[in-house]
């Protein structure tokens, strides 16, 4: 353990001991546990509560640093682990799998760390045929809108469409590879981990549009994603995933 990680671990242990004395386990995750924290990084602490505890999230300041505490019973945390396989976003899994133990008198936290590592290695659930068709249809529709934009088009609209194209293309590409998806800064990281070549093409296309209002590269890369999953989908599509009224443009 590096000196910087050790400092964060000791600080996090003090927080857990003072604020959560009934905890049955706790781990430090995120950049502080990986040795990648900056002066602006917060402490990501996951606290195991007794079985009758109330799961919640708390944000506080501790010893001059922002701390986020994710408090869960073991049952609630295991449900979150399983939901990750369906949503294909694995925040809780990564927090545990890449964590440092803070408090573990009964071995519960270490057991959950092992479960998280196994679930991460297994990857998320594959797309169902209905999910695949819904994703293909949405990305096809977005690409039609993006292709219609021109250098003189409303830049706000073009950028908004491009951001959604990147997000949906990343969702389909990571799912195609049975890899984990992400949001925010984790979207490009997970995307390139899943497919270094096509993932980079999507990111370069998105950047080209942002810098030069040129959608061609992003459209081409997104079309390659669609071809991996059966191609564009327009005529004949039926939405079987939602019961709410259809909402064009959303």
Question: Please, could you describe this protein's structure?
Answer:
- The chain is an alpha+beta fold and 250 residues long.
- It has 10 helices and 5 strands; from the N terminus they run αβαβββααβαααααα.
- The protein has a 5-stranded mixed β-sheet, with helices on both faces.
- The longest helix is centred in the middle third of the chain and has 22 residues, at 155-176.
- The model is unreliable at 243-250 (pLDDT under 50).
Q: Main attributes?
A:
single chain; 250 residues; alpha+beta; five-stranded mixed sheet; 10 helices; 13% strand; elongated
Summed up:
The protein has 250 residues and is of the alpha+beta class. It has helices spanning 3-19, 30-34, 74-87, 91-97, 108-122, 129-147, 155-176, 186-194, 196-212, 216-228, and strands at 25-29, 43-49, 56-62, 65-73, 100-103.
* Total of helices: 10
**Helix amount, in percent?**
55-70%
The sequence of SSEs as H and E is HEHEEEHHEHHHHHH
Structural class: alpha+beta
Q: Quote the distance from N terminus to C terminus.
A: 47 Å
Q: List low-confidence stretches.
A: 243-250
Write down the Rg.
21 Å
User: What is the 3D shape?
Assistant: elongated
Provide the residue-averaged pLDDT: 92
Instruction: Give the biggest sheet.
Output: 5 strands, mixed
Q: How much of the polypeptide forms β-strand, as a percent range? A: 5-15%
Main sheet: strand order:
3-4-2-1-5
Question: What's the total number of strands?
Answer: 5
């Amino acid at each position: 353990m590096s000196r910087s990680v050790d400092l964060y671990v000791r600080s996090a242990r003090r927080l857990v001991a003072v604020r959560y004395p009934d905890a049955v386990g706790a781990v430090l995750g995120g950049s502080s546990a990986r040795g990648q924290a900056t002066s602006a990084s917060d402490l990501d602490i996951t606290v195991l509560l007794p079985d009758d505890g109330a799961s919640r999230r708390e944000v506080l300041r501790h010893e001059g640093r922002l701390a986020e505490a994710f408090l869960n019973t073991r049952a609630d945390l295991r449900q979150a682990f399983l939901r990750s396989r369906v949503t294909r976003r694995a925040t809780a899994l990564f927090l545990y799998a890449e964590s440092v133990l803070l408090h573990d008198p009964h071995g519960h936290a270490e057991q959950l760390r092992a479960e998280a590592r196994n679930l991460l290695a297994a990857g998320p659930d594959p797309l169902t045929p209905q999910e695949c068709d819904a994703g293909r249809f949405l990305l096809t529709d977005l690409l039609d809108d993006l292709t219609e934009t021109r250098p003189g088009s409303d830049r706000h609209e073009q950028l908004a469409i491009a951001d959604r194209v990147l997000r949906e293309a990343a969702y389909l590409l990571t799912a195609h590879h049975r890899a984990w998806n992400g949001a925010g800064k984790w979207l490009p990281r997970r995307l390139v981990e899943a497919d270094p070549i096509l993932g980079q093409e999507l990111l370069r296309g998105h950047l080209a549009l942002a810098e030069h209002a040129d959608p061609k590269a992003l459209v081409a890369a997104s079309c390659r994603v669609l071809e991996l999953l059966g191609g564009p989908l327009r005529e004949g599509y039926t939405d079987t995933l939602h019961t709410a009224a259809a909402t064009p443009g959303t």
